[in-house]
Amino acid sequence: MTLPKTRLADLALLGGSRAFPGTLYVGRPNLGDRRRLHERLDEILDRRWLTNQGPCVLEFEERLAALAGVPHCLAVCNATVGLEILLRATELRGEVIVPSFTFIATVHALHTVGLTPVFCDVDPATHSLDHRRVAELITPRTAGILAVHLWGRAAAVDELTVLAERHGLTLLFDAAHALHASSHGRPVGGFGRAEVFSFHGTKFVNSFEGGAITTHDAALAERLRLHRNFGFAGYDHVVSPGTNGKMSEIAAAMGLTSLDAMPDFVGVNARNYAAYQAGLANLPGLELFPYDPAERNNYQYVVLTLDAARTGLSRDLLVRALQAENVLARRYFHPGCHRMEPYRTLQPRAGGTLPVTERLADSVFALPTGTAVDPAAIAALCDLLRFLLAHGPALTAAAPPAP
Length: 403
Ligand code: T4K
Hints:
This protein is α/β, with parallel strands linked by helices. It has helices spanning 34-47, 55-68, 79-90, 104-112, 131-137, 157-167, 218-228, 249-260, 262-279, 308-311, 315-324, 343-346, 355-361, 375-390, 392-398; strands at 24-25, 72-76, 95-99, 116-120, 142-148, 170-174, 182-183, 186-187, 194-198, 211-215, 232-234, 237-238, 286-288, 302-306, 327-328, 364-367.
């Protein structure tokens, strides 16, 4: 049961009752078939093989490789470590061009391995790297490009591939959001030198914590295997630097169970996305991030852009008002990596070259979706948004100061 709003004073931010009795989260995990998960866990315990490339991990890797259309897939403990391992194995030195409008892990991975992130602006239509801006940033110091398929919509793969080839750069993709997505009909996972997926609990396919690196490059895959496992080429035989980036069997069991249900999860996300599209149609000042219907999409993020000038309501106040109603909308990816430490201090002028990023970081927010959200809740949430936007200037005048 949700409580509709009729007067401004009904808003929870202004002292009214919360619209939703239970909290709606962005990133509430999808759970697959519990019985099958429990069976897999029993099998793991019966085998007493808990990690180090056990049968669940090997099956997970095989299934992911098939989905990505690549010969090599390495499951890892999370995408952040996956990115670090990949960057170390490629032995890049110098600068890497990267978006600032991404989750901080993309940029931290570069910093952690001693590479210098060069922030590049994004395309306002796709929220991913603007290849024209990338071209302007290439110098003799540039070693590579780390692009992100943001929100699961493929980045400008073809244009970036041409650029990288022309300048002899290593092209890598952070595909944390993009399992099941395609670019010109080809699956994400096989682009550039390698791609990295995330299976964190908040991703539509999850392994509690986890990630995977996919590549066509056999020699790179071999180096990645060494880097993932302390550099061991056999018992007591270390031939390269390395870390512990392995995925455990229990994580892979969840990953497999999640993959079994992937078609259902995509179906629910697509249904929810369509419900938001219908519920928010013709609402001036609020734009739903579009997925390309000609491609395969996972629809795992419902992302909106608010025009504060047009609605008389800032994104931050809108998010506060929603959170007060028990809708934990998120300001992904505020304030932009270049405005976070250590980059804010290291590159204090970066913002001047990132006008689209700065605008998006201050106007974008994400709404709940996934199997924990049903169409009735989405309809009520869309009504709430319509009410908030209809009262933008009045709410701005009446709202208590942000804590
Ligand atoms: N590259 C990109 C582009 C990424 O987006 C990410 C991660 C990475 C790389 C790195 O991947 P991993 O190393 O994590 O594999 C979340 C996730 O923690 C993060 O994985 C994800 N991107 C990012 C977009 O979102 P936060 O800081 O927003 O919040 P978190 O994880 O605390 O959870 C968000 C919401 O989900 C909460 O409101 C509560 C709910 N939740 C969360 C968990 C974990 C649940 O209901 N149950 C849960 O078990 O980062």
